[in-house]
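Following the same procedure, backbone shapes were mapped to integers, yielding the entry below.
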Amino acid sequence: MRRWRFFFVLIGTLLATGARAPGQDPLAAVFARIDAAASRFKGLAANIRRVDHEEVIHEEDVETGTIKVKRQRPKELLVRMDIQGTNPKQAVVNGSKVQVYYPNNPGEIQVLELGKKKSLVDQYMALGFGGSSNDLRAAYVINLGGPETVAGEATTRLELTPKSSELLDQWKRIDLWISDKGGYAAQQKFYEKARNYILITYTNVELNPTIPDSVFHLDVPKGTKQEILLRKK
């Protein structure tokens, strides 16, 4: 599963907006924002900064780029991620199919066809993309972490423990920092058992932009072949 961390992490991303109901306790207020957002979420665009921390060797790999999401149907999303830098990547998620292209290694697209592992996608999708608080609570045990500031923005942190043994084998905990003002996830942290983690920060978030379907096709040379890393069963 570790070799596929990039594929799975790019699936689980942002929460949309919603107003905080006055007089609610902090956790209930976050759930209210999630549910309000779910009814009007159509998509988003944002800048991302991704830190991959390896505890044993005390090393961090930092990547930056952009992400675009478009909601096709309540449970169907298109996701496009472009990573810049010395090891650029293009990644597209369409349902249970994930495609990644590395421009520095042209001629091949890596493909993950999840098939029966679609339930994993659904659990990641519960982290955002307009999913309801019921979706989130169905997949995770949720604790309130408290108020914190992320990239100059006031947020409320949630601590999520996966209920699925398969997801728990990959991540022992996932933290979400939800913007108090906008209701979206300003940051996510995926914890591994060996004290490694992936930290993703989102800035310049634009909610419900107009995004053509053509954006969700990889920009690759004609004749590029596909390498199937995992085929659906």
In short: Residues 11-22 have pLDDT under 50 and may be disordered.
